[in-house]
Amino acid sequence: MEARERAGKPFSLKGLYRNHKKAIDKNVFVVSFMFLPIILFLIFYVYVNLDSFVMAFRAVGTLEDGTIGEYWTLNNFVNLANILKGGEDGLGILTEAILNTLLFNVVNLFLILPTTTLICYFLYKKIAGYKFFRAVYYLPCIITSSALVMLFKLALQDGGPLDVLFRKMGYFYPLSRSPSALITILVYHFLFSLGGNMIVISGAMRSINSEMLESAEIDGCNWFQEFIYIILPSIWPTISTILILSAAGFLGATGPILAFTEGDKGTMTLSFYTFALVSGKGAPTDYYLASAIGLCMSAISFPLALVVKKVVYGKEGA
Amino acid sequence: MAKKGLNGKLVGFNGRKKSKSEKVVFGIAFILFAAYAAFILFFFVFAFLCALRPDGTSFENERFLHSNLFSWPSNASFNSFLNSFDTIAQINDHDTFLSITWNSIWRTTTYVFLSILTSSMVCYIIVFYRSKFTKFIYNLGILVSILPLYGGTAATIRLYNQLHFINNPLALITSIGLYGGYFFYMHSFYRTLSWQYAEAAFIDGASHYRVFFQIMFPMVLPSASALFVMSFIASWNDYESTILYMPKFPNLAYAVYAMESIATYNSAIPAYLAGVLVTLVPILVLFLIFQNSIMEKVHLGGLKG
Fold first, then answer.
1. How far is CA B152 from CA A1, A100, B144, B174, in A?
2. What total of structural domains would you count in chain B?
C-alpha cells in the first residue's frame, strides 16, 4: 500500500530517508525485544541440552597421564542397563521407576483429566456455590506440596483424625493396614491434582459460543448430550494441547515423591530418579548417569509426542 | 430470557427450568462437590486445630485428637504461631524468619517479573511484527514445547558452576527465556488484541516502544496479571530450585520442606503446622485477591504450527 501511495508522488530524498528510518526503527525495536531472550535461550536451553547430550557419553576418572578428568565412554549406558536389570533381590530401581511413571500417567490421563473436565463442566453450568467450589479446588495448587504432604500424612496416619472419626462411627479404619506408599501417593496425586488443569479447561468452556448452547437447548438437548456433543468438541483444541504436552512429558510424570518418601519404599519415578542423581536426595550423585537416563527418556518421548500430535491434529497439524 | 422449546417446555440458557433428570444429576453433583470441598478444607481446619495445641505437646504420644476431634482445644494457645517463626528459622544457623521471607519475596518477584515481561515482549513481536523470522521463532516454540528433553538439570548445574551462578542472585537472569512465562497463554492474549489501536497511535507519531508500553501492554495486563499470579504461586512454592541452585538463599517453601524433619524429630508438630499456616498466608491473600482474574481470564489454544 505504501508503495502504491509512493508511486503517485515525485521522488524525494527526504521521503526515502523517512521510509528507511521507519524500517530501521522497526528493526531496532524487534531486535531490542528479542535479542536477550534469544541469547539466553541459546545458552540455557540449546547449549545446556547439547552439553547434557555430551555428558551422557562422558565420565570422570583417571586419565592416561595420571590426572583426574573427563573421558569419553559408554559406561553410563552400561550402568543404566545394569540398573535396569536389577539384582537377585528383585527389580532394579530404574525398572521400578519406569513402572511407577507409567502408573502416574494412567492416573493423569484416565482419572485426573476426565474428572477435571467433568468438574469444569458443572462449574461452567454454574452449579450452586460454583465460585466457592472452584476457589477451594484450586487451593491445593497454591500450597507448597511439602506442606500439603505433611498435612496429608498427619491427618491420615493411625491415631490421626480420620482414624478417630472411623472408630467413633464404629467402623474399621481402612488405612490402618498401611497401604503401600505408592498407592498413598497415587491417591494423594489424584485427590490434589484435580485443580491443575481447571483453569485452562474452564477457560476453553467460557469461550464456547452461548448461542450454540441455546439452540441445542431449544432442540431438547439434555445435559449429557450437551457435554458430549457440544462441550467436548468445542474444547477439543485445549484438550488436545493438554494431551500433546502430556505425551511430551510422558516419562516425566511424577508426584510429590521428594516430600513423601524421597524415592524410598518402592515409590521411585524416572523424573525423581534423575532429580535424585543430581541433587543427591534419594540416590548417590551422578551427573553423567542422570544425563544418560535423560537422553534415553528424550529419545523415547519425542516420537511419542509427534505421534500423539499427528493423531490429535490429523494431517493438518502434522 | 425464557423461550419455548420444541417440546413446549420453557427453556433458556441462563436460569432456565431444569428437567427432573437434570435436577437429580446436578443434585448428586452438588453433594459430591461439597464433599470434595469439605475434604480439602478438612486439612486446613485440622492443621489449625493442631496448631492451637500448647507447645511441648507431642502429637504422637498423647493422641490428643481422640478426645476432642474438631473441637476447640480446651487450653487453646496461639503460642505455636509465635514460636513458628523460630521453628522456621531452625532450618539452618544463619537465617531468621524475616530473612527467609525476604528471600521468598525477592526471588519470586524478580523471577516472575522478568519471565512474564519477557514473555509478553516476545509474544507481542511474534503476533504483530510478522516475518519469516517471527514465524520461525513461533514454530520453534511449538517444537520446544513438544520436544521432551530430560536430564538437562545436570548440565544446568555444571553451567551454573562455571558461571558462578550457584547461590548467586544473578542466576535469576535465566528467567528471561524465549518461551518462558506461560508463552502460549500470552500468545493467545495478544492474538485477541486489535492492531488498530497501535495504528492510530503510529499515525499520531508514537514510537514502537510507546505503543507497546503505553497502549498494547496495558490492554493485555488484566489477563497477564492472572499469569503473573499463577507464576508467582508456582515460584513461591518451588523448593526444589533452592535445593539445586540457591541453598544459601532458602525460601519459605524450602523452610517448610526442611522444617518437617526438625519438627517430627522434636515432636514440635503444633509449631510446625502453625509455621505451615503462616507461610500460606501471603500466597492465600494473593490468590483470594486475584482469583477471578485467574479463573476467568486464562485460556489456551491449540499447538498448530
1. 48, 21, 14, 14
2. 1
Per DSSP (E only), the strands in chain B are 3-4, 10-11
Q: Which residues of B198-217 are buried (b: 16+ CB within 10 A; e: fewer)?
A: beebbeeeeebeebbeebbb
Task: Round to whole Å and give the CA distance between A151 and A259.
Answer: 11
**A128 and A20, same domain (yes or no):** no
Query: What's the CA gap between B208 and A164, in Å, rounded?
Result: 66
The 10 Å Cβ neighbour count of residue A299 is 11
Residues of chain A in contact with residue B216, where contact means CB-CB under 8 angstroms, are none
Contacts of B238 (CB under 8 A, 6+ apart): B251, B253
Please tell me which of the candidates B29, B177, B300 has its beta carbon nearest to residue A127: B29
Domain holding B206, by residue range, is: 95-254+280-297
The count of structural domains within chain A is: 2
State the Cα–Cα distance between residues B2 and B12, nearest whole angstrom: 5
Helix or strand (DSSP H, E) at B99: helix B97-128
The rounded distance, in Å, linking the Cα atoms of B297 and B287 is: 14
Per-residue pLDDT of chain A (318 residues; tens, 9 = 90+): 444 454 556 667 777 777 788 889 999 999 999 999 999 999 999 999 999 999 999 999 888 888 889 999 999 999 988 888 776 656 688 888 999 999 999 999 999 999 999 999 999 999 999 999 999 999 998 888 888 888 888 777 766 667 777 777 777 766 666 667 888 899 999 999 998 888 889 988 988 988 888 888 888 888 889 999 999 999 998 898 888 888 888 899 888 888 888 888 889 999 999 999 998 888 889 999 999 999 999 999 888 888 888 887 775 554
Sign of the CA dihedral A292, A297, A300, A303? negative
Which domain CATH number covers B288?
1.10.3720.10
The closest CB to that of B177, out of A40, A135, A223, belongs to: A40
Same domain, A228 and A163: yes
SS3 category, A157:
coil
What is the domain range of residue A30? 2-55
What are the backbone dihedrals phi and psi of residue B11, each rounded to the nearest 5 degrees, phi first?
-130, 170
Mutate to test the interface with B, among A40, A150, A162 (most CBs of B within 10 A): A150
CA B40, CA B101: separation in Å to the nearest integer?
Answer: 26
